[in-house]
Each structure stands twice: as structure tokens, then as C-alpha cells.
Amino acid sequence: MATDLKIAIKSNNMEALAQYRDHLRTHPRLTYLFVELTDRCNLACLHCGSSCQQARGVHLDTSLLLRTLDTVAEDFAPSSVMICLTGGEPLLHPDFYRIAAHIVALGFPWGITTNGTLIDRQAAEKLRSLSLASVTISLDGGKENHEWLRQSPGCFDRTLTAVEYLNAAGIPVQITSVIHRRNFGELDAMYDLMRRMKVVSWRVINLEPIGRALQNQELLLSPAQFRGLLDFVRDKRYAADTPMDVRFGCSHYLSYEYEHEVRDNYFLCGSGLYVGSILCNGDIYSCLDIERRPELIQGNIARDRFSDVWFHRFRPFREDRTQKNAVCRDCEQRRFCAGDAGHTWDYDKNAPMFCIRKF
User: Fold this and answer.
1) What are the Cα distances from residue 213, in Å, to 47, 185, 219, 307, 314?
2) Which residue of 121, 145, 233, 287 could cross-link 262, Cys pair, CB 3.0 to 4.6 Å?
3) In degrees, to the nearest 5, what angle opens at C-alpha 36 toward C-alphas 30 and 37?
4) CA end-to-end span of the chain
């Protein structure tokens, strides 16, 4: 297809999506509710966006969460809201299976994000019995690089074993891989590993300058590596022999060159538009990857009904951020980018920390 025609088609599609974003700003549609069951983790990853701890942490109060889920089921159609249990490591919550059973009883589809190291054959079977819709597991390179990044000897083999158990239980597995300077050269080997593990989806993302990664910024991809990552994903997506869905994560606006080339959808940051979350202390928030700042907390489930907060607050996530920054305001693609992702927005400087124009 001629380049000019392709750009015209993409522009029309992205303009339609921008109009939908405008609609969501005044008519938000809760589609994903992330529940941070705990900020405790059994690993100590160098890139952790939440800076989770091994020795200490907070578990979300079970009774309070169950009551909140009851109200969410009353105020929204459960079948239309995906509940995503995450952490930290969600399986460390002492009432994990009780909470999961309650979610199922209310009629919500649900999934988990986990490092996989705590899933044995028994756990996989129990998850299957609870109608787990999907599981996302992190795997960041070969054995050496994965265990170095995760700071846990032996975790690579435990993760691969977990995938085997989940496959045997018939639970769809998505692998998420964070790509940085140290494992960038392993992309082809990682692709082959994903094929051998028979995962249904491989979600590739770049290391972000957030959380604990701020102390390890030497690992961030160079501009050439970032474009190389996008080219790799695009090539694998359209390879005739690719048996799984390969995609770049939802993280960023990627310009005319890569939008709709490296994932099914065009970029739209859903934070506060169709994505909400509950933190492990009960705070109501938007995307869990966004820096935890007091002014961005929208309420707390101990005192607020989630639906009231969802429909009447969340203003910081529904306003046009590009009006706060001269570079964004004057950009010809601001309509489609909208200031890029909420989790890489600098709320002190009112500027994006990531911009595809720099790459």
C-alpha cells in the first residue's frame, strides 16, 4: 500500500479513536479493574515499577475488598468488567483463592499477573477450577538475564515449570517480557523459547523510567534499540509461521510508522477512561503503573463507593494534558498521542518522559 494512502487511513482511524477518547472523558466506561492485592513480592526485580518489597508489605483487607466487589457488581454489568488481580505477587495474599472464588460467584471474568514462581501443579488445577480466563507471567530473557533482573536464582526454571502446569490445565498463558539493554540481543532466542513453551501471546515492552528502574537507567534502550525492538515485533507479527500473538505493549503512542503495525489496536491510554484500580491500602486509583502521588488518589474503598468515585472524580486522568505543555500543544500529532501514557507523564514538570519524536 502506498505510504500516503496508509498514512491517510491511519489518520482517519486515529481521529475516530480520538473522538472516542473525547467521549470517554465525559462518559467513562469501566472495562478493566485492577486489584493490587498486596505490595509484597517474593522477588526483588531491578526494574519493578511499584518498588515492591520481600520482607514487608501490605495486604488488601479481604472483607473490605469483598464488599467493594459486591457494589461493583451492583453498579456495573459484571460480564463487561475484567477483574485483574495483581501485586506485588498476588498469590502471596493469604485469601487469594477466597477472593477469586467471590469474583467468579459475582460473574466477573478475571485474570492474574504473576511472576509464576509460586504456581505448582496443584495451584494450576485450582485456578482452572475457578474459571481463570487468563494469566500473564513475566519472563525477561534467558536464564542468566532473567534471574539477574529478578534477583532470584532458580526463578527462571520455576517460571517455565509454571507455564507447563498452566498449559496442562488448559489456562491461556500470556508472557510479558521487559526489554532492556542487557537482554536486547536475546530477542530471537526469546521468540524461540516462547514458541517452545506454546504460549498464546507474547507481549513485549520496553523498560520504563519508573519505579526501581529510575535507579538503573543505564538499562534503558537507546533510540536505535527501541526502533529495533519495534521492527522485530512487526516482523514477527506478520511472519507466516508465527504460532502465537506477538505484540508490543499498550504503553506508548508510536507515530504513523508503527501504529497498528506492532499491535492490533491504535494507542489510547485507558487510565481513568476504561481502566481503574484499587491499591493494596484501599485507595482508588487509575493505572497501577502511574507514580503514586497524593493528588492522584481519587478516594478509598473504606469510605467511598467505587462507582461514585469512577463517575464523578478522576479529573486528572480525563483532562487534556497536552494543554499543559508547550511542546505537546504545538505537536501536529497531539490529537492522537494526547500526551502519551499516564505512567510516563512527569506530573511535576507537566511533560511526557517518553516521546516517540525523540526516537
Assistant:
1) 4, 19, 8, 33, 27
2) 233
3) 125
4) 25
Q: What is the pTM of this model?
A: 0.95
What is the edge-to-edge ordering of all strands in the sheet holding 173-179? 245-248, 201-206, 173-179, 134-138, 110-114, 82-86, 32-36, 275-278, 283-285, 299-300
Cis amide prior to 88 (ω within 30 degrees):
yes
Q: Where do the DSSP E strands lie in the chain?
A: 32-36, 82-86, 110-114, 134-138, 173-179, 201-206, 245-248, 275-278, 283-285, 299-300, 345-346, 351-352
* CB-based contacts of 214, cutoff 8 Å, min separation 6: none
pLDDT at position 48 is 67
Residue type for position 51: S
Given a contact cutoff of 8 angstroms between Cβ atoms, the answer to whether 246 and 230 are in contact is: no
C-alpha 70/C-alpha 74 separation (Å) is 6
Q: What is the pLDDT of residue 78?
A: 98
CA–CA separation, 173 and 137 (whole Å)? 7
Low-confidence ranges of the chain (pLDDT < 70): 1-2, 47-56
- What does the pLDDT read at residue 2? 63
Query: Is residue 113 packed enough to be buried (19+ CB in 10 Å), middle (13-18) or exposed (0-12)?
Result: buried
CA distance 161 to 151: 18
Per-residue model confidence as pLDDT tens digits over 50-59? 555 555 679 9
DSSP state of 270: -
Grouping H, G, I as helix, E, B as strand and the rest as coil, residue 283 is strand
Predicted pLDDT of residue 219: 86
